[in-house]
Amino acid sequence: MKLEASKRTAGRNAALRDQGRLPAVVYNKLVNVAIAVDSKAFDKVFRQQGTSSLIDLEVAGDTHQVLVREVQMDKRRRVPLHVDFYAITQGEKLEVAVPVIFAGTSKGQKEGGQLDVQRREVTIYVLPSQIPHDVTIELSELDIGDSLHIGDLRALLPDTAEIVDDEALTLVTVLAPRLEVEEEPAEEEDGEPEVIGREDEDEDEEARED
Description:
This protein has helices at 13-18, 39-49, 107-110, 198-209, and strands spanning 2-7, 21-27, 32-38, 55-59, 62-74, 79-87, 94-103, 114-117, 121-126, 135-138, 147-149, 162-163, 170-175. It is elongated. With 210 residues, it is an alpha+beta fold. It folds into two domains: 2-87, CATH 2.40.240.10; 94-175, CATH 2.170.120.20. The protein has a six-stranded mixed beta barrel. A hairpin with a 4-residue loop joins strand 2 (21-27) and strand 3. The relative contact order is 0.13.
């Protein structure tokens, strides 16, 4: 997927954002160029490609194959403020986090069990041309108490990919159904109602008096 960019001068980030442009940088061991991209165009590309798919970034007539390495976000408005693009080198492996997608409904869930997802991505070391957009793993055969681990993804990855994460780490587990316990109505007691936190306040007051 393509994304057009232009070179920029440092120190004009706020003005760029007002113009609908997003400050960014494209870099690797040999390259470090300050650029700007159209905010809406980046949003469209990033939604489709994420951080694990290559993007053809065109800058002043040159095309760099890049990955999105980091997006700095405005925490209040939830909009990007700055993007780091990493320019890959063909033939050199790189470390990348690939999303894991869970497909199907497990046997355990059909029997009332609950799906406990503990990880949604796997970190691998792989050639740029072989980076998968995501890894889909089937859940339908899992019974209550069964789990899938990072190592179970090996057969779904490219042959040249190396798994960086501990392969014993759990991806997902099917938990037993929760037992519903009927609560007995609380007996009414004379005196003051319970106030959570008052005891701690009293202890703090005593400590201050000491």
